[in-house]
Amino acid sequence: MTQILAGFxxxxxxxxxxxxxxxxxxxxxxxxxxxxxKATAVAIAIPLTFALPALxxxxxxxxxxxxxxxxxxxxxxxxxxPGEPSSAPTALDGYPLARQGKAGKALKAxxxxxxxxxxxxxxxxxxxxxPIASYALAITPVEICAVLIxxxxxxxxxxxxxLAKGLVAALLGLLVATVGLEIESGLPRLTFGxxxxxxxxxxxxxxxxxxxxxxMILQAGNRAALDQQAATVAKGVHPDDxxxxxxxxxxxxxxxxxxxxxGIGVGILPGLGASVGSFLSYGFARxxxxxxxxxxxxxxxxxxxxxxxDNAVVPASLIPLFALGIPGSVxxxxxxxxxxxxxxxxxxxxxxxxxxxxxxxxxxxxxxSLALLLIGLLFQGAFARxxxxxxxxxxxxxxxxxxxxxxxxxxxxxxxxVMLVFSVLxxxxxxxxxxxxxxxxxxxxxxxxxxxxxxxxxxxxxxxANLVSHPIALIFLxxxxxxxxxxxxxxxxATRQPEET
Amino acid sequence: MLKTLKMAALVALTxxxxxxxxxxxxxxxxxIGFGPxxxxxxxxxxxxxxxxxxxxxxxxxxxxxxxxGGVALAGLRAMPADGxxxxxxxxxxxxxxxxxxxxxxxxxxxxxxxxxxxSFDIALxxxxxxxxxxxxxxxxYAREHPGILYAALSATTRVFATEIARAxxxxxxxxxxxxxxxxxxxxxxxxxxxxxxxxxxxxxxxQMKVIAALTTERNAGSPDVPTxxxxxxxxxxxxxxxxIAPAGTPDDVIARLEGTLxxxxxxxxxxxxxxxxxxxxxxxxxxxxxxxxxxxxxxxLAIMQAAGVQPQ
Lengths: 501, 312
Fold this sequence. Notes:
Largest sheet of chain A: 2 strands, antiparallel
Largest sheet of chain B: 6 strands, mixed
Number of domains of chain A: 1
Distance between the termini of chain A: 51 Å
Order of helices and strands of chain B: HEHEHEHHEEHEHEHEEEHHEH
Largest interface: A-B, 50 and 53 residues
Number of domains of chain B: 2
Helix content of chain B: 40-55%
CATH superfamily of the largest domain in chain B: Bordetella uptake gene, domain 1
Radius of gyration of chain A: 22 Å
Oligomer: heterodimer
Radius of gyration of chain B: 21 Å
Strand order of the largest sheet of chain A: 1-2
Shape of chain A: globular
CATH topology of the largest domain in chain B: D-Maltodextrin-Binding Protein, domain 2
Strand content of chain A: under 5%
Distance between the termini of chain B: 35 Å
């Protein structure tokens, strides 16, 4: 705590605050545009900071990361087009809310959840970076693998309509994740001799295609109905529909607390990333709900769960970076480059050698959380009007942004091709009742799961009995078994009362 | 022959750029075969700013990630040889890929090499806590503890462990990791006892120690540690960042590019960026670079063949 107090004088000047606010604002806008993600936003901004002093540069970059993590909820809610994959669960309930005329409420819920998740994880970073760090090293691929197996059980929870279809979607995601050079021996798999597939299918262009382009195709086909709905909605907006009521807070608060905790946990573990955090948090909120039927139809706690975890991952992934020099996420890995450029080696020595800088960074991160709240409230009013724009204007603009995003993230025309192929798949998925989110969970977890499984086999010396020395992994495996048992029981009950499903 | 090529290039480009002789007269694209934010990207961006100052035209960095630069190289090969599309990439994408992959959509002769800028301190590293300090100690330890784990980033990096194990008749198991950050995790978390490092270990002087240099010359960052060749195993493989243009790029353009590389190697702002990433600035002329590339390819092919690695 003394570190932060020492850091505040360093950032409480107009120039530093201006860079922090600028970073958050740029991040929020980039995040709100469909197709561009936070990692790209930060990476592209690094050269802008070449000439800046270290504290300004790092505060600016972290501001961008925080801003874009929160901004990606905007297009998820208003257009059903997540700014990046980690906001896909936000769209599941945020978009239905917007179509019910409650866009303002959903945007505020997402923003408050983002800010609280972000602030909570930042405080965790400040308080816990050093003490937690030693535990982070005790987390080996064996524990990661167990956590990933556990996360896969939430696929079942998200398959509300049909368990079979939910599993098929997730397994297809796993299958697509195997495309590319095999991790251990370098053998090409399912590449059909195409060199561009060696690194696997790029996640962002694929997600843009399946989530955004597919959605635009569907909306274009349903134009008349959507426009009529928008017109009715515009007429009768109740004031309560654009703010968080006491009742909304009652539902959202536990989801935010749990989401923040999940986000912190996922951020600390290396190699999981924000998508796993938000998927897990959403799945958990749904499985804990008294009436899970509300989810997918506009449950405010779904939005809160997803966004709080999404944002909490960003500062939490800096915990292993600051404490040990280990990057916990793509953002953290990119930030290492920025830190080194400015003569700072992230790691335990940073606290001893540059305590003042660390204090300044902490203070800047807290200031960025507050800036996020202001920027979000400022921009939301303008963004919320998008709901009233006729579909025939929305679709071409979003498609244009999608192509740009796929181009940048997928390395040129190849990214656009990937996007188009998966947009067709996305339309088929929606029309046939398969869950796109399940597919993405399978894909995102698939790669990390394969790697950590193969690492675990080596670390355990190919002997499952050695699991005994990994109690955390055992706990997660036990939780997986319980979740599967509970779910199959629930599914059996559901088949007995089909009218309720 | 060169004249014909030049003529062909001229004819092909008349529409786009009528005055080839006055290169450069429009912005240059510097292609980076990796995503933004990594070492290759940051080095490339630092080079681009020196180049644009030196040449008086904007130099735009274009990221085309995939297959360690292979996707971008396959694209560069088909671009006009007019000096407006160039690429900075680690040399091994060209000099090692043919030993590993049956289908490589480019070859060493598809490109002209304008010079080399930095070299990588590739090394066999261990966590500081490891109960050995040198190669002999490592071999003795591995003999007593069969199955020690070596963190490998790819099929190539795996070869070092299998060859060291075979030569000394010891058992080293492979722990696959995901890139440099994955390797850092495995060593700092002491999950692996050994690892391949492309130079990232310089950032962790307190947590990692160098057991052997895996290059043909000693590492610039650890001159006291012998190379794997000095230790009796000729499997050292070098890697430099090399400036690449499509084959047939006019000689005067290559000469100008070589000049800007030399300028970058001397530039304090470039050195600052390179130092921050522990990249060793080591300039080679276009002629030297071309020789090094060919020698490196032959040497790598021989090492991989001796190791029994079949292209897949």
